[in-house]
Amino acid sequence: MVPVIALVGRPNVGKSTLFNRLTKSRDALVAEIAGLTRDRKFGEGKVGDRPFIVIDTGGISGEEEGIDAAMAGQSYQAIQDADIIFFMVDVNAGITNGDRMIAEHLRRSGKSAYLVANKIDGKNPEIVLGEFFELGMGEPLPIAAAHNRGVTALVEYVMDELPKDDEEYFRELAGEDAPVHEELDVKGIKIAVVGRPNVGKSTLVNRFLGEDRVVVYDEAGTTRDSIYIPYERHGQEYTLIDTAGIRRRKNISEAAEKFSIIKTLQAIQDCHVCILVLDARTGIVEQDLHMLSFVLNSGRALVIAINKWDGMTQDDKDRVKTEIDRRFDFLTFADMHFISALHGTGVGHLYDSVDQAYQSSMTKWQTNLLTRILEDATSSHQPPVVRNRRPKLRYAHQGGSNPPIIVVHGNMANELPEDYKRYLANTYRRVLEIKGTPIRMEFRQGDNPFSEKKKDIRHSSKKRADAVERTTNKRKIKQDKARKQLRKSYKKPT
Ligand SMILES: Nc1nc2c(ncn2[C@@H]2O[C@H](COP(=O)(O)OP(=O)(O)OP(=O)(O)O)[C@@H](O)[C@H]2O)c(=O)[nH]1
Ligand SMILES: Nc1nc2c(ncn2[C@@H]2O[C@H](COP(=O)(O)OP(=O)(O)OP(=O)(O)O)[C@@H](O)[C@H]2O)c(=O)[nH]1
Ligand 1 pocket check: which of 7, 8, 16, 19 to mutate, most ligand atoms within 8 Å of Cβ? Predict the structure, then answer.
């Protein structure tokens, strides 16, 4: 599961600033799903290749009344939802009553909280941090969110302290090749059905599962965890990530709805293919686009289902189609299906796209195939001249899957203009018939795959030469010493 970090603290301590830092460290997509969650903001960030979810809270002032009380309610909810809490204080302000009150609440919540001392700027930590020990929250960790100082180190530090995923943990215990713990083994294509409330997710999921196909293991998961439901269709195995607790709940309580954003974000990260459900009756609204940006940011394969297509007039259908063309014109890779979850129309085609997207996102291609495509692409369209020189692209290899990452190596490869990079990406997509998943292209400077090795050899031979010289010198010094002693002894005639 992707860990959730909540930012908690008095107003003005720098929560928003830190939120922006954490979420912008990745492609600068910050999503705020309004309405559903009042003022809470949810975002995704990454350290190295480890993703996490961040919740920014409204702030707890310590004098809860009216609006403040409502905000505080939000913070308390966020504290419950999170794995990690960053309790932020302001080193310029020192400790206030509000800080004391929050510390008390955190202690009672039993959650693991880190005391983050913001606005350290150029100050001496030894002097300004001392007083914050009084809060009894352990050692204050200094950062300057506004200047991006200490932020990455902070997240790396807390992520390292997190308990590992069960699966990872079992593997570690049992050794690399051991089979994964039976119950944790997820079968086939992992599907996440996401969308804002009322678009028809539950109806679609029930349609997918159909009572007789369902093998439910109803583990007593926590309220925050989604249930994984394995099933089969036409001999293909799937696992549905049930974010809405469809298999468990009787009706939608407010609490369940609040949790669902985190579950949705986690499901997006954890799935192979994401089905984004839209409602043809309401058209596309801001929340749909926010949800879409989360999916795009995650790099997951995507299929779009425009639901409730039954009983629409032709005029309405035309209007929805025009709107989709206009608002999704940037979305080139995802298949779209007009379906009725209620009647089951279009669901078969949806599966075709899911299977196809999964295949594309998981396929592994040989280096020589990728290199040949690169050679063809560059010989039909040469890379444009950059700084009076023409970049020379040498070879390509696959750097990962889900999403496929294609790494192009060459002289000045990292300086290619964007439109040429896009041309290469489109060529790969066309030739390899990649459908339903984004492709990530990486461009690395270096014209020879073995240049790193060469450097090593050069380095080591230099090392050897140095060592020889040092020994020679040592020997010389020794000889000199011996000679000196000899001379001395000659001077002392008996
Ligand atoms: N000197 C300094 N100022 C900072 C730093 N981080 C944030 N600030 C400033 O502190 C002020 C408050 O920052 P916000 O991020 O809005 O604080 P907040 O906790 O989200 O405040 P609320 O939204 O009211 O809860 C802003 O003027 C920031 O520019 C820092 O590292 N150093
Ligand atoms: N006409 C029509 N109505 C549908 C269709 N799919 C779902 N609905 C109706 O839309 C309403 C919402 O459907 P749900 O499946 O509960 O929606 P949801 O997205 O799971 O909602 P949350 O659980 O609140 O997130 C229900 O009244 C459904 O009967 C469809 O294909 N056609």
Answer: 16
